[in-house]
Amino acid sequence: MQLPQWVARLNRRVTNPVLGTIAPWAPLFGAIKHAGRTSGRAYSTPVVLFDAPEGFLVVLTYGPDRDWLKNLAAAGGGEVVHRGATFGIGPPQVLPSAAANLAGLPKAVVGLGNFESVAVLPKR
Fold first, then answer.
1. CA–CA separation, 57 and 45 (whole Å)
2. Integer CA distances (angstroms), 111 to 36, 61, 77, 104, 116, in order
3. What's the pTM value of the predicted model, to 2 decimals?
4. Could you read off the pLDDT of 42-92 as tens digits, one per residue?
């Protein structure tokens, strides 16, 4: 299940500007830095972010049809700011939640929301 698109639009306009100021330093959050596919404009998108052996894991609460995900794929990667540190990341890999071999808190979050997919952001 994914959250309704009206929630995504509300978060984009209201929640993200506020959350964007704390996400780079707050536990369980991060900011994904990416460039627009056509405009080249720099963006910073706050997300719930988990450390993973491969790099980082983002639960795709609104599904895989997200601009930040498309922008990272088109550019071959970007950056993540997590706990105040900046990391280079490669192109994202979208996986069904069942295939992601989740454990601990990420597994609980996916289970609570019954979310169908996750994105793995490999560190460079």
1. 14
2. 32, 12, 28, 11, 9
3. 0.85
4. 999 999 899 988 899 999 988 899 999 999 999 999 999 999 999 999 999
Of the candidates 25, 106, 13, 17, the one whose C-alpha atom is nearest the C-alpha of residue 60 is 106
Amino acid at 99: A
Integer-rounded Cα Rg, in Å, for the chain is 13
- For residues 56 and 30, the answer to whether their CB atoms sit within 8 Å is yes
Fold of domain 5-122: Pnp Oxidase; Chain A (2.30.110)
46 is written with which tokens?
């706050």
How far CA 95 is from CA of 16, 19, 57, 120, 121, in Å, comes to 24, 26, 10, 8, 11
Q: Which two tokens stand for residue 99?
A: 């295939």
**Mean pLDDT for the chain?**
88
User: What does the CA dihedral 12, 25, 22, 65 come to, rounded to 10 degrees?
Assistant: 0
118 by Cβ neighbours in 10 Å (0-12 / 13-18 / 19+) ranks as buried
